Amino acid sequence: MNIIINEHTLNGFNYLELIDTTCVDQPAPLVFFLHGYTNNKELSIISGYKLARNGYRVILLDAKYHGERRINNQRVPEYRLPEIINQSLKDIDAIHNELTTRNLVIVGRVGVTGESLGGITTLAALTQFKWIDVAVSLMGTPSIYQFFKSQLQHLDLGEVTKKIGGAIITGLKDIDLSRHPETLAGRNVLLWHGDVDQTVPYYDDWAFYKTAKHHDYGTNLSFELTHNVGHYVGRDTTDMMVAYFKANL
Questions:
Q1: Exposure letters 192-214 (e unless 16+ CB within 10 A, then b)
Q2: 134-138, strands of its sheet edge to edge
Q3: pTM above 0.90, yes or no
Q4: Alpha-carbon distance 96 to 82, whole Å?
Q5: Which of 13, 44, 137, 141 is at a distance of 20 to 30 A from 195, taking alpha carbons?
Q6: CA–CA separation, 162 vs 160, rounded Å?
Q7: What's the total number of domains in the chain?
Q8: Residue 89's pLDDT is what?
């Protein structure tokens, strides 16, 4: 197997495609991997490579204000995170549409995964896109509205900026999986967390899992908690993510 990395441009942004050379122009199962806060698509190549080695067409892209999309090399303001998530949803939908139009996607075999901010975006995507068949959230939260509302309250911001941030956060209710659990629709979804994660605590994942499992829409929802692990995705967790896709996609 020979994995290559191709760079493409769509709607003014670049994304990376990892794919076996024998499948470049052929339909293949598709997986989006979404990076975490302050990271970029290049730092996700190892995870993408492991997925591509198992036959997936893997897409890596920079979130807004990250990587090649940073503005004047400035740090990403935390109050912009909801805006970033909404843009990532538009981006993966556009890429999916583009690849589908080019007949490069196997219908029924499309996955999304991500770490931290990418994990949060993954769960938000489930509320919007029926074309997602399998999802793995690493250190994410399904309670996106409450999470960012709490974050905003603890940021040292001016009143005008807080009002802007508050208006953006209100819009998160539409993509909050905990508010729209029925959008799971019986899909295979894995929630993973470390039990000492202080950045995005595991409690929201666990509470959502406990409730959703009692409904038809949550039949294929899984939850994994690793002890003595903080806000960090190591090799074992990455391998677990890949194995989950191998088993379900």
A1: bbbeebeebbbebbeebbeebee
A2: 3-10, 13-20, 57-61, 28-34, 105-115, 134-138, 188-194, 221-226
A3: yes
A4: 21
A5: 44
A6: 5
A7: 1
A8: 98
Distance of CA 218 to the CA centre of its chain: 19
Distance, CA of 122 to CA of 85 (rounded, Å):
9
Find the Cα–Cα–Cα–Cα dihedral 69, 73, 77, 81, rounded to 10°: 20
Token pair in block for residue 109: 């075999």
Q: How far is CA 176 from the centre of its chain?
A: 13
CATH number at 62 reads: 3.40.50.1820
Other Cβ atoms less than 10 A from the Cβ of 186: the count is 13
Tokens 């994995």 — which residue?
Answer: 3
Contact 248, 136 (CB under 8 A): no
Domain that holds residue 134: 3-248
Task: Give the other-Cβ count within 10 Å of 74's Cβ.
Answer: 8
CA distance 145 to 22: 43
Write the CA distances from 42 to 34, 66, 67, 211, integer angstroms.
11, 11, 8, 37
Kindly report the length of the chain.
Answer: 249
pLDDT at 160: 43
Query: What torsion do the CA atoms of 140, 249, 213, 205 make, to the nearest 10 degrees?
Result: -10
Mean per-residue pLDDT pooled into runs of 10, the chain (249 residues)? 96 98 97 96 97 98 91 75 94 99 98 98 99 99 92 59 61 95 99 97 97 98 98 97 99
Q: Are strands 13-20 and 3-10 parallel, antiparallel or unpaired?
A: antiparallel
